[in-house]
Amino acid sequence: MTSRYHEIYDGWQRDPEAFWAEAAREIVWHKPWDKVFDPDQGVYGRWFVGAECNTAYNCLDRHVHAGRAGQTALIYDSAMTGSTRGYTYAELTDEVATLAGVLEGLGIGKGDRVIIYMPMIPETVFAMLACARIGAIHSVVFGGFAARELATRIDDATPKAILSASCGLEPGRVVAYKPLLDGAIDMAAHKPQACLIYQREMEQAPLVAGRDLDWADTVSAAKSAGRKADCVPVAATDPLYILYTSGTTGLPKGVVRDNGGHMVALKWSMKAIFGIDPGEPFWTASDLGWVVGHSYICFAPLLHGATTVLYEGKPVGTPDAGAFWRVIADHQVRVLFTAPTAFRAIKKEDPRGELMRQYDLSKFHTLFLAGERSDPDTLEWAEEMLRVPVIDHWWQTETGWPITANPAGLGLLPVKHGSASVPMPGWDVRVLDERQKEVAPDELGAICIRLPLPPGALPTLWNADDRFTESYLEAFPGYYQTADAGFKDVDGYVSIMARTDDIINVAGHRLSTGGMEEVLASHPDIAECAVVGIADPMKGQIPAGFVVLKSGVSRNIDEIERELVALVRERIGPVAAFKLAITVARLPKTRSGKILRKTMRAIADGEEYGVPATIDDPAILDEITEALKERGLAGAA
Ligand code: COA
Ligand code: AMP
Question: CA–CA separation, 71 vs 79, rounded Å?
Answer without folding.
Answer: 23
